[in-house]
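User: Run a structure prediction on this.
Assistant: Running it now.
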Amino acid sequence: MYIVIQLDKLLSIREASRILGVSNAHIKAMEKESRLVPERTAGGQRRYPLSALRPILFSH
């Protein structure tokens, strides 16, 4: 059995914070430090590529 993960999937700040196990405020702090760079929707909402979370997950 194979599990396919879409690394190009875009996540909300809530989804990203749950995956990383941190608060939304911490996600925003990482954004200010340029550790995470979100894409923006037409409405200005942050969307984080799943592939951008991978290096953070494995850096600990």
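The chain has a mean pLDDT of 90.
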